[in-house]
Specification:
Length: 229
């Protein structure tokens, strides 16, 4: 479930980000050109806060506040989806073989006479939570066969092979608000450190601050946009 972040929350977040990034920029200015420019650095800090509020507030307000559905909702959804493959007491049943794993939906394929149909049904549906297929210890060849099928269907490292199971991860979408926050939180301190470092190495040459800004910003961008699966 999702809802709009709203202007009030977005404005508060923009002010906090402006305070943080402006402080880092102010420290960088004072470190680079000297403490006698305190007034100019203070004005810069205030300007960054104002610009952050003006620029970031509408961007953050149009984003969505993410909510995580209860795992019970996912379990019930997949039990209903797979109920057509029920085999009665003593056989495979969605009620007993589809459970909550704590991090997703666990589907145990043991006792099923038609495991490939179950896998095909999942593969043809939209994956919106982690799906964990668990196999019988007596069928390692079958697990490897299923792995090939799932890897062909789901790309981008979404399929993971474990000792006794195969995991399918939901597709990750870029969260614009989270990305902006990462940029603002990570880039300023790296820019500050890089600028100070370049000033020390180049005996405070004017271009050293610019080089530090570029290098720190580039490194911060790489870290902020890095995605792990």
């Amino acid at each position: 479930m999702e809802e709009k972040v709203g202007w009030r929350r977005a404005f508060s977040a923009a002010i906090v980000l402006g305070l943080y990034s402006g402080f880092m920029i102010t420290i960088g200015i004072l470190s680079s050109i000297g403490t006698e420019y305190f007034l100019e650095a203070f004005v810069t800090w205030g300007s960054v806060i104002i610009l952050s509020a003006i620029i970031l507030t509408p961007i953050l307000a149009n984003g969505r506040k993410r909510g995580v559905e209860s795992s019970v909702v996912f379990v019930e959804r997949y039990r209903e989806l797979l109920s057509q493959y029920n085999e009665g007491v003593g056989g495979w049943r969605s009620l007993s073989h589809v459970r909550d794993s704590g991090s997703g939906v666990l589907i145990t394929l043991s006792d099923s006479s038609n495991p490939l149909l179950i896998i095909g049904k999942i593969a043809s549906s939209e994956i919106d939570c982690k799906i964990i297929f668990r196999f019988s210890k007596r069928e390692p060849e079958f697990r490897d066969r299923v792995l090939g099928i799932l890897e062909e269907k789901f790309v981008d490292n979404r399929v993971q092979k474990k000792a006794k199971s195969i995991h399918i991860n939901p597709k990750q979408e870029i969260d614009r608000n989270s990305l902006i926050t990462k940029f603002v939180m990570i880039c300023p301190p790296l820019i500050l450190l890089a600028s100070i470092g370049f000033n020390e190495m180049t005996s405070n040459l004017p271009i050293s601050t610019l080089l530090g800004f570029i290098v720190g910003g580039f490194l911060g961008g790489l870290i902020a946009t890095n995605r792990t699966h």
